């Protein structure tokens, strides 16, 4: 595969909302789903995105491949600062560490809501570049991500990028327990 240059660009909440159908197509293409699951997962992604773009200080970064023959990004990352009231942590299994509560209350925790790279662009460093660009502008001291326990590939990547396990969280939606990983961010 040609290792053409990849360009990163920020998208505003309005651009993200306006491009939501294309972003949902990227989501489906980035995650190989069993036949029949694509539609349901696409709809879930669209619902999450519609909610997330409304969050204060929502941020999104896309990776565009200069050799691409269409306008579809090679990858995408987005997230937002956690609300200071700590509601994001509802469902945390066990006791949330005091320092995490304090950082949340001070508005210094950034949630990575989504990181995706098309399979044909894996192993090119795009995921780590997207992540670094997104987090570098967050103003946060701590980043947090929720991972499906079955996604061992993602977990290995995050651990290689310096993320540590914090615990588990059971979402209010009643979905299965998710792993919580965090990473301290430089000043």
UniProtKB/TrEMBL annotation:
GO MF term set: acyltransferase activity, transferring groups other than amino-acyl groups
Coiled coil spans: none
InterPro entries xref list: Acyl_CoA_acyltransferase (IPR016181), GNAT_dom (IPR000182)
Span of domain N-acetyltransferase: 6-184
KW Acyltransferase (keyword) present: no
Keyword annotations of the record: Transferase
Keyword Transferase attributed: yes
Name of the protein in its database record: GNAT family N-acetyltransferase
């Amino acid at each position: 595969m040609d290792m053409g240059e990849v360009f990163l660009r920020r998208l505003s909440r309005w651009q993200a909302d306006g491009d939501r159908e294309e972003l949902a197509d990227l989501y489906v293409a980035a995650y190989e789903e069993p036949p029949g699951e694509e539609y349901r997962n696409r709809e879930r992604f669209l619902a999450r995105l519609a909610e997330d773009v409304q969050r204060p200080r929502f941020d999104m970064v896309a990776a565009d491949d200069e050799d691409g023959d269409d306008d579809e990004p090679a990858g995408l990352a987005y997230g937002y600062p956690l609300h200071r009231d700590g509601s994001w942590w509802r469902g945390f299994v066990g006791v949330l560490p005091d320092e995490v509560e304090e950082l949340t209350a001070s508005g210094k925790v950034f949630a990575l809501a989504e990181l995706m790279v098309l399979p044909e662009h894996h192993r090119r460093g795009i995921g780590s570049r997207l992540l670094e660009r997104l987090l570098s502008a967050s103003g946060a001291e701590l980043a947090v991500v929720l991972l499906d326990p079955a996604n061992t590939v993602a977990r290995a990547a995050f651990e290689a990028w310096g993320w540590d396990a914090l615990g588990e969280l059971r979402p209010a939606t009643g979905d299965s327990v998710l792993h919580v990983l965090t990473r301290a961010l430089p000043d």
